[in-house]
Amino acid sequence: MTAIVSLPITSWDQPISSANQTLAIEALEAGNVVLLPQLPFVVREDERPLLESNVIQGIKNVSLAPANGTFKGSKGTEAEQRQLQAMMMRFAASTKSLANNLLSPYEEGLQQARASFRPVEIAGRPTSWRKDDTRLHVDNFPSSPTLGKRILRVFSNINPQNQPRVWRLGEPFETVAQRYLASLPKPLWGASKIMNALGITKSPRSAYDHYMLRLHDHMKADQDYQTQPSHQEQLFAAGTTWMVFTDQVSHAAMSGQFVLEQTFLLPVEYMQHPAQAPLRVLERLTGRGLV
Ligand code: SIN
Ligand code: FE
């Protein structure tokens, strides 16, 4: 069972007690979800039309690189796009400040990666099985190898009609890894250099990234696994924020519309319990170094 650890945080910018910080870090590293039910990301009145208009019609994902403002994927007029970009920049800044306040032991190591806005209804959306996030999976990036860095994601449900975002949660990482490891193909010698030379990846794919991608695919393709009744349904209400290491926690998003998401990367050595990192678990199970 994945625990949902609720904390009474009400501000993105205020210092947070060390007791609550410890609760959050222990929960996250153990593969649980930290829920902040009293921390909405507030969409301003003048921004409300962005959730209606053709800026987002039919779009799965609008992305923002907070470091340089690079903004991709939206439609609409120039003015609407600038407004959405500014709203996402505000979200990125808010999550950065929250991360520094709630997870201060990570501060030196935490790297802010891309933010995304996901404006389509997930339920019934046509997509390939590999991209189908209604199937349980762990996250990783096909073209941007993490080399073992953790993927920590902060989500805010900004649904204006009060619809929850509905997830399913699966087993602990080690249980999932043990289920599939023997059936995952081994990395091919030379393949990572070739993929990198061809521009398929932005840097050479490590054995760790190879195993994580294959694990993601095998989980999604396994109908038996997907339909196990033991998986837990979890509703995230509109107006709430939650965070989770999505490289570790088996998750699927079943329904809901309008979520903002910010990704952070964290090198394993900044964790309080590095042995719980997927990298260290897979190294233990395979008996070899993977990066
Ligand atoms: C996912 O990371 O698989 C999807 C999460 C979401 O959009 O709610
Ligand atoms: Fe995911």
Features:
291 residues, Jelly Rolls, 8-stranded mixed β-sheet, 3-stranded antiparallel β-sheet, binds succinic acid, alpha+beta, binds fe (iii) ion
Describe what is shown at a glance.
By secondary structure, this protein is α+β, with helices and mostly antiparallel strands.
How would you sum up this structure, described in words?
The chain has one domain (4-283): Jelly Rolls (Sandwich). The chain has 7 helices and 11 strands. It has helices spanning 18-29, 78-102, 173-180, 191-197, 207-221, 223-226, 278-286, and strands at 4-6, 33-36, 62-65, 70-72, 111-118, 150-157, 165-169, 232-236, 241-245, 251-255, 259-266. The strands form 2 sheets. The protein has an 8-stranded mixed sheet, covered by helices on one side. It has a 3-stranded antiparallel sheet with strand order 8-7-10, with no helix packed on it. Helix 1 (18-29) links the parallel strand 1 (4-6) and strand 2. Helix 3 (173-180) packs parallel to helix 7. The protein is globular and about 55 Å long. The model has no long low-confidence stretch (mean pLDDT 95). The protein binds succinic acid and fe (iii) ion.
Structural class estimated from helices and strands: alpha+beta
Distance between the termini: 30 Å
Strand order of the largest sheet: 1-2-9-6-11-5-3-4
Helix content: 25-40%
Please count the helical segments.
7
Multimer state: single chain
What is the ordering of alpha helices and beta strands?
A: EHEEEHEEEHHHHEEEEH
CATH domain topology:
Jelly Rolls
Round the Cα radius of gyration to an integer and report it. Answer: 19 Å
Total count of domains: 1
Bound molecules: succinic acid, fe (iii) ion
Low-confidence stretches: none
Shape: globular
Give the total of beta strands: 11
